[in-house]
Write a structure and sequence with these properties.
heterodimer; A: alpha+beta; five-stranded antiparallel beta sheet; 9 helices; elongated; B: alpha+beta; two-stranded antiparallel ribbon; 10 helices; 7 strands; about 20% strand
Chain lengths: ~250, ~260
């Protein structure tokens, strides 16, 4: 497969991930593996702050060496992924030996691992930074402008996928809260009616009885209402007096 | 550029385009705040050129009522869907897609045997329902009606999809600010969540010694048989003008109701 075809195929595969069965690690692993295949890089690694704003973690790496190097980068609080994440700007073919003042701890370790230069692409969308993609080259290798553009494209698509997924998850959580709040009200209204009928009270009086009992026994009102409707709490218990006869 | 502060949930659009930005602008007050939920239905109608709009929330199979309606006809449409358990909003919610009915009186419509004539009588000639949905989370549906038979234009249709999505996000974000388990007052203030019907269900459940679900079915059956709105029947029950017994319904004096 030509590099161009591989790029196109990768974009399609990334887009395929934008559906229900979404696993972030799978997606990012695909990304790093395809970077190594498509571009003249030895290794690729990706760090992500997930959820947005949390601490950076190593999410994917194309080899064990890469993984260890990325972990070291985060632990030493310096390195290309971190710079890229913080500034939102890409790095292009930065020679490690020339960047020792920038990365005094990380630099030598990366060189010792066999790398000569590094490029990095930010993962961000309209001002929200969520991580960065590191691409490491062996001595003599480097990324062309086309490669850098291709890597940027990969990073952008993965960013959108992750943010959309996160928004969808948030929406589910909030919708569950909304549903619960709505159905709790229904149950409370039903219980008011049932108690009003059984204890010969007005709806408002019945509400008062339920509230007082819930407070006195430290139960949530909608839970008490549910128990009452299910017959687990007797009318006489709530009202504190014998139920009127039929 | 500084990495963002620790997150609060965000369900807003990840990618905004010109249409979304234009509609978002319409959902803001002049000083940049989000419009009231109460105004939301009016804005939905204005944006799409509809005669009126209602936002219906649903849970599982059941309509729970309307969070907001822009006019009386929309309120009646929502009442009908709640009472009859059928209608374009309900279908839109279940099917997760817009339901477009340019002419309710067209015999080819073929569904909503009870809802359609009642909606026409209330003043709705055309109905367009759009899901209220964010990602996979389904809240209910947005109902738009027109007072004469017509279709939405392509632009109006596109705007409706955008405004329905934004309205759904807004409802979720409003609820996010409320204490857990409690409905946000901004949502309940202007809403018609059919409390009277649920109260009546509780009363009838006690009268007949059946479940509240059964009681609601009995109330609906009575309303349908009498040709009366469900909420009027419910009000009669709650105000003790109407009782249900094993042998039939009675009025307050113990005789058959008029």
């Amino acid at each position: 497969m030509s590099p161009q075809e591989l790029l196109t195929r990768t974009f399609v595969d990334l887009a395929d991930n934008l559906v229900d069965d979404f696993d972030v690690v799978d997606l990012l692993t695909l990304l790093t593996d395809r970077c190594v295949e498509a571009f003249d890089v030895t290794d690729a690694g990706l760090v992500l702050a997930a959820p947005v704003g949390a601490e950076l973690q190593v999410m994917a790496s194309s080899s064990r060496t890469m993984r260890d190097l990325e972990i070291y980068e985060l632990q030493s609080h310096e390195g290309p992924c971190l710079d890229c994440y913080r500034t939102g700007e890409p790095l292009e073919n930065v020679v490690l030996a020339n960047a020792l003042d920038r990365w005094p701890r990380f630099g030598p370790v990366a060189i010792a691992a066999g790398f000569e230069s590094v490029s990095a692409q930010p993962m961000r969308l309209r001002g929200t930074s969520i991580g960065a993609l590191n691409l490491f080259c062996a001595p003599g290798a480097s990324l062309s402008q086309d490669d850098l553009a291709g890597a940027r494209g990969f990073a952008d698509v993965a960013t959108i996928a992750i943010l959309q997924h996160q928004a969808s998850v948030d929406a589910q959580v909030l919708n569950n809260q909304l549903q619960q709040a709505l159905t709790s009200r229904v149950v409370i209204e039903q219980a008011k009616g049932m108690l009003a009928e059984r204890a010969d009270l007005s709806i408002d009086e019945a509400f008062g009885v339920l509230r007082r009992y819930a407070r006195a026994h430290n139960i949530k009102l909608h839970e008490l209402a549910r128990s009452f409707l299910d017959g687990k709490v007797a009318t006489s218990t709530l009202s504190g007096r014998p139920t009127p006869g039929p | 550029m500084v990495p963002p502060a620790p997150r609060c949930p965000s369900v807003g659009p990840v990618m905004a385009d010109e249409r979304t930005e234009r509609v978002v602008a319409l959902l803001r007050t002049p000083d940049g705040q989000d419009v009231d939920v109460a105004r939301l239905a009016e804005v939905c109608a204005e944006v799409t050129g509809a005669s009126g709009a209602g936002l219906m929330v649903m849970s599982g199979d059941m309509s729970l009522g309307a969070i907001a309606t822009s006019d009386h006809v929309s309120a009646v449409i929502e009442d009908l869907q709640f009472a009859l358990g059928e209608g374009p909003c309900i279908d839109s919610y279940h099917e997760g897609r817009p339901i477009l009915v340019p002419d309710l009186s067209d015999p080819a419509v073929g569904r909503w045997i009870s809802f359609a004539p009642a909606a026409i009588e209330a003043g709705a000639a055309a109905i367009f329902a759009f899901p209220l949905q964010v990602g996979n989370a389904r809240l209910g549906a947005l109902n738009l009606y027109a007072d004469r038979p017509r279709s939405l234009t392509v632009e109006q249709h596109a705007d409706a999809i955008v405004v329905a999505g934004l309205a759904a996000q807004m409802l979720l974000m409003v609820q996010a600010k409320a204490p857990p388990g409690v409905l946000a007052h901004e949502l309940s203030d202007g809403a018609n969540l059919q409390y009277v019907v649920h109260q009546a269900s509780g009363m009838v459940a006690a009268q007949l010694e059946v479940s509240v679900t059964q009681a609601l079915i009995r109330l609906r059956g009575h309303a349908f048989g009498e040709g009366r709105p469900l909420k009027d029947v419910a009000r009669d029950v709650v105000e003790r003008r109407l009782r249900f017994t094993r042998s039939g319904e009675t009025d307050a004096a113990g005789g058959a109701p008029p």
